[in-house]
Design goal:
By secondary structure, the chain is an alpha+beta fold. The protein has two domains: about 15-210 and about 380-440, FAD/NAD(P)-binding domain, CATH 3.50.50.60; about 215-370, no CATH class. It is about 40% helix and about 20% strand. It is built from 16 helices and 19 strands. It has helices at about 1-15, 30-40, 60-65, 75-80, 85-95, 100-110, 130-140, 195-200, 235-240, 275-290, 305-315, 320-330, 335-345, 345-350, 350-360, 420-440, and strands at about 20-25, 45-50, 70, 115, 120-125, 145, 150-155, 160-165, 170, 175-180, 205-210, 215-220, 245-250, 260-265, 270-275, 295-300, 360-370, 375-380, 405. Strands 12-15-14-13-16-17 form a six-stranded antiparallel beta barrel. Strands 6-2-1-10-19 form a five-stranded parallel beta sheet, covered by helices on one side. A three-stranded antiparallel beta sheet has the order 3-5-4. The protein binds flavin-adenine dinucleotide. Flavin-adenine dinucleotide binds near residues 27, 185, 186 and 418.
Length: about 450
């Protein structure tokens, strides 16, 4: 009898203790993953996810449009190198929730993945929408509450979170906060980088946001006025939007960092963009910042040796024009041949040695990145030296309630290939666990 009373008494006490409240702000992959980890604490926590947009995961859905590249299957030692100077900081996060865990997680949501060409990992149907749908359903079932159209505006004087909502400005109190607000590209999908000044005001260590995996503007071709940057009218009107297929880019920056890879990219109205350019973009961007421009070498025929190319260029051409000669001997025509005429002076074109050398290593000078809004991702953000190992922000004055950050808003960058999403999921997972341990759960 007495035991029953005690049991009932304890149960009603437990029921009377209100759950701790965690606010997750930002409903991209990083925020949703943090919410999922937090929801695993059950009744002890109330997890509320806020997003400025009418629905979550908009960039994730866009990523799915071209085939959602979730992660990469290469061995961890190669995988981690893709994070360059931040591989050390991201290593423990990705060791805890990396490519294998991500694939198992998707599988548990009913989305099987496969390893495609070059080791890239995709959902079998290549899409993001079914995965997001199943995930949101599971989060709702686990008790996560969603507040859409809530734009975070910073903190009120009493430490409460301030949001602009359809009902006007609202204040929300929380025992811990996870920010997963994304980087600074594709602002129309929600990630506009407007959080930077809010965090700067509170003394959070930040690196400026910069475009990553981005396109570039080319310098004026030799012989044209420097002010008229971009392609000539002739080249731009005929070739903007056309791809350079089966080419290679080589670049070594002034710090000795080297890049060489075969692939494809596209000519734009005034420059270059596309996967091969994105892959070298962080080196080019940093070189432009340091020296005003960066010059990469374009190999128009990476499957031929310099000797083979020279032999074909020198082959007697009789009365044929140089263009038909290049086409018949080297299969060089279209945008590739046009690029030679665009960037080489008449004398160099007429000199077989110089022409052959240019076909294998045509210098292309770029002078500016395209705007951050057009980039696939951004570099910069909340610095790792301003956070502890669990991604809790540490400032000299301290931030209350405890603040954790995750996803692309952290100061790391990576090439395309599934590395971006992997680090977003991994850091969301780490921040969720960071909150649980901070709250003693
Ligand atoms: C075209 C394209 C294709 C891509 N394809 C791939 C790919 O195949 N593989 C890959 O690995 N990566 C890909 N990426 C990159 C990847 O989508 C991003 O790195 C990832 O979505 C970032 O996740 P996140 O959770 O950090 O931020 P986001 O997904 O950007 O989410 C941030 C959320 O925060 C919200 N938010 C921002 N500010 C506020 C505020 N003040 N108040 C409230 N809410 C706010 C936003 O509305 C948004 O919902 C692609 C990106 C683009 C643009």
């Amino acid at each position: 009898m007495q035991t029953d009373f005690l049991l009932n008494h304890t149960t009603s006490l437990a029921q009377a203790t209100p759950p701790l409240r965690v606010a997750v702000i930002g409903g991209g992959p990083a925020g949703l993953m943090a919410a999922e980890v937090l929801a695993s604490a059950g009744q002890a926590l109330s997890v509320q996810l806020f997003d400025a947009m009418p629905s979550v995961g908009r960039k994730f859905l866009l990523a799915g449009r071209g085939g959602l590249n979730l992660t990469h299957s290469e061995p961890p030692e190669f995988f981690m190198k893709r994070y360059g100077e931040r591989s050390e900081q991201l290593q423990p996060l990705i060791a805890a929730f990396g490519p294998n865990e991500l694939r198992a997680w998707a599988d548990a949501l009913g989305v099987e993945t496969f390893v495609g060409s070059s080791g890239l990992v995709f959902p079998k149907d290549m899409k993001a929408a079914p995965l997001l749908r199943a995930w949101l359903q599971r989060l709702r079932n686990a008790g996560v509450q969603f507040s859409m159209r809530h734009r975070w505006l910073g903190w009120a004087e009493d430490g409460a979170l301030k949001f602009a909502s359809p009902a006007g400005e609202v204040k929300v109190e929380a025992d811990a906060v996870v920010l997963a607000l994304g980087g600074g590209s594709w602002a129309r999908l929600g990630s506009d980088g407007a959080w930077l000044p809010l965090l700067a005001e509170r003394g959070v260590a930040l690196a400026p946001l910069q475009p990553s995996n981005c396109g570039f503007e080319v310098a004026a071709a030799p012989g044209r006025a420097a002010a008229s940057a971009g392609w000539s009218e002739h080249f731009s009107s005929r070739f903007a939007g056309q791809p350079f297929k089966s080419v290679a880019i080589s670049f070594t920056d002034s710090r000795g960092r080297s890049f060489r890879r075969k692939g494809e990219f596209v000519a734009t109205a005034a420059g270059v963009e596309g996967s091969l350019v994105y892959a070298v973009s962080s080196l080019l961007r940093d070189e432009i910042a340091a020296h005003g421009s960066a010059t990469f070498q374009l190999d128009l025929l990476p499957d031929r040796t310099p000797e083979q190319v020279l032999a074909e260029v020198r082959h007697p051409r009789g009365s044929r024009s140089l263009s038909s000669h290049l086409k018949s001997r080297l299969n060089l025509d279209g945008i590739k041949a046009a690029m030679l005429y665009e960037l080489l002076g008449k004398d160099d074109i007429a000199d077989p040695l110089k022409l052959a050398a240019a076909i294998k290593a045509l210098p292309v000078r770029v002078i500016a990145t395209r705007p951050i809004d057009e980039a696939i991702s951004s570099a910069g953000g909340v610095r790792f030296d301003g956070m502890d190992a669990q991604l809790q922000v540490t400032t000299p004055a301290g931030i209350k309630p405890p603040l954790f950050c995750a996803g692309e808003m952290l100061d790391w960058e990576a090439p395309t290939g599934g590395y971006l999403l992997t680090a977003c999921f991994a850091s969301g997972h780490a921040a969720g666990h960071g909150v649980l341990s901070r709250l003693g759960l």
